Amino acid sequence: MTEITGVQVGSRGDTPSYRTNSNDGTRAVEDWDRAAVRGTSLYNDEDGEQHELPTRDYYFRDRSSGQIISSSQPNPPNDGRDYEHFQPVRRPQ
Question: Please, are residues 43 and 49 in contact by the beta-carbon 8 Å criterion?
């Protein structure tokens, strides 16, 4: 597991959130820029907010501290804390 550092923190201790419903042709460019240039992906938290984070297999957020960690394993750490699972955003083709 690795801790995410150097990420802008929002008011809840989150990463910046993004919402876009636009399908004006710029979505493909935005997705390409995000993945190929910046090396990031969008992930949804349990409330449906989107977070742009470095592309990893899995993300979890400690509900009490707001700390976000990445993992190559599908299960949260087994350290007694309560974790929220982030889901990768799947855009319709």
Answer: no
> What distance in Å separates the CA atoms of residue 7 and residue 16, rounded to the nearest whole number?
8
Percent of all residues in the chain with a pLDDT value above 90, rounded to a whole number: 53
Global pTM reads 0.64
Ordered by start, the domain boundaries in the chain are 2-88
Amino acid code (one letter) for 40? T
d(CA 77, CA 82) in angstroms, rounded, equals: 9
Question: What's the per-residue H, E or C state across 46-88?
Answer: CCCCEEEEECCCEEEEECCCCCEEEECCCCCCCCCCCEEEEEE
Name beta bridge partners: 61.
68, 84
Tokens at 3, concatenated: 């801790």
